[in-house]
Amino acid sequence: MPDDDTRDRVRALVRDVLSKAMPAESEAQSSNPPSSLTSSASSRPTVTRDESAKLVITEDDVRGLEQGAVLRIAENAKLTPLAADMVNARGIEIVRRVPRSGSKQQKTIAVGADHGGYAMKEELKALLTELGHRVHDFGTNSESAVDYPDFAHAVARAVADGSAEVGIMIDGAGVGSAMTANKVPGVRAAACYSVEVARNSREHNDANVLTLGSKTISGTEMHEIVRAWLSTEITEDRHRKRVGKIEAIERQYQR
Q1: How far is the C-alpha of 154 from the C-alpha of 177, rounded, in Å?
Q2: Beta bridge partners of residue 79, listed in sequence order
Q3: Which run of H or of E encompasses 37?
Q4: Is there a catalytic annotation at residue 115?
Q5: Is residue 171 within 8 Å of 143, Cβ to Cβ?
Q6: Which of 14, 146, 160, 180 is the most exposed place for a label (fewest CB within 10 A)?
Q7: What is the 3-state secondary structure of 60-104?
Q8: DSSP run (H or E) holding 111
């Protein structure tokens, strides 16, 4: 067994090694923070104002922001034409808050149909309720003959004014309702007849109104299309840029 003198020399050596190593290690940690924290801090812009609780951003929400400010808004929020002009003129950066729940986020959905789409609309409402969404039904309420533009307009207007996040309208073919809905500023309606088209209309075009044709798809296909449409989001900046151009063209004809 080592004697006391040997143990004391070993302890002194260990203390000497630790005293020289620890300051260097501490200095390295303080001068080089973890890369995940560094990238996180540098990649996130400092938000000047948070309006992410609103579905419609007006000029009042933008007023007072200085050049180059950062405005956080909800993922599905829409800017009024005047608000969009103010954002562009002042170089305000828009940061959209992506819900943590992703595709499972509960939505308020406006639905409508003419007499030809009434039965499918009732089936649609049951599906949306099953998926956990809130449904605002704008009619029609029977198979008595009505005019599809009246109901497509009501659904589109609910989306445009922010009382609904998205809308779904059903008529015989889905085309006339899409034409009607797209007359409402702020609406991007897509007539979809397959899952692939439905996903594309959301991922590439950020469609906020889906129109369906009860005479062109089955009930099973309707379920598949609606599920795909609601679970797909626009995520890439290149697609957002192109949707921004659609909105800019629309504003040209509102003046």
Answers
A1: 11
A2: 57
A3: helix 35-43
A4: no
A5: no
A6: 14
A7: HHHCCCCCCCEEEEECCCEECHHHHHHHHHHCCEEEEECCCCHHH
A8: strand 108-113
Cα gap 120→97, rounded to integer Å: 33
Distance CA 194, CA 151 (A): 23
Cis peptide preceding 211, ω within 30 of 0:
no
- Provide the token pair at 195: 């899952």
pLDDT at residue 34, as a whole number: 37
pTM exceeds 0.70: no
**Can you tell me the distance from the alpha carbon of 183 to that of 185, in angstroms, rounded to the nearest whole number?**
6
Q: pLDDT digits over 138-179, tens only?
A: 999 999 999 999 999 999 999 999 999 999 999 999 999 999
Q: Active site residue: 136, 204, 223, 239, which one?
A: 204
Joined tokens for residue 19: 């005293």
- 10 Å Cβ neighbour count for 33? 10
44 is written with which tokens?
């996130």
Is the separation of the CB atoms in 135 and 125 below 8 Å? Answer: yes
- Domain regions of the chain by residue span: 4-42, 45-97, 106-231
Coil, helix or strand for 161? coil
